[in-house]
Fold this protein.
Amino acid sequence: MTIVRTQTPSGESIVIMPEAEFERLAALAEDASDLQTLATSQTRLASGEDEMLSEADLDAMRQAPSPLAFWRARRGLSTTELAARSGISHAALTATEDGTGTSDIVVLRALADALGVEVEDLVPAAPVI
């Protein structure tokens, strides 16, 4: 393999190599990045920082009136308990959970914190048109 080391007109050091070798090195770098992402995910799962949902959990999530209803039930909380933990009124919580009302980011953040999930986990999926 031929590698040429040279400099740009501004003095930056560069290397010229066959494209196949560049592609091989790029693939190795991507594999290393993927392995790091996997290791990070496994560590977060093992520590309980993240949780994995089973197929049955995903079915339950799809059948729940909202992601909020799913996570509240998964945590074993009543609407009264979640309202108290999050500092949200019971009426606002139930309206958010059943979709008859909307909540701003402050309400969703309080609910997410009380449930131990990310705000994104509580946002309903957009309807398929």
In short: Helices lie at 19-47, 55-63, 67-74, 79-86, 90-98, 105-115. The chain has a mean pLDDT of 91. The CA atoms of residues 82 and 114 lie 7 Å apart. Strands lie at 4-7, 13-16.
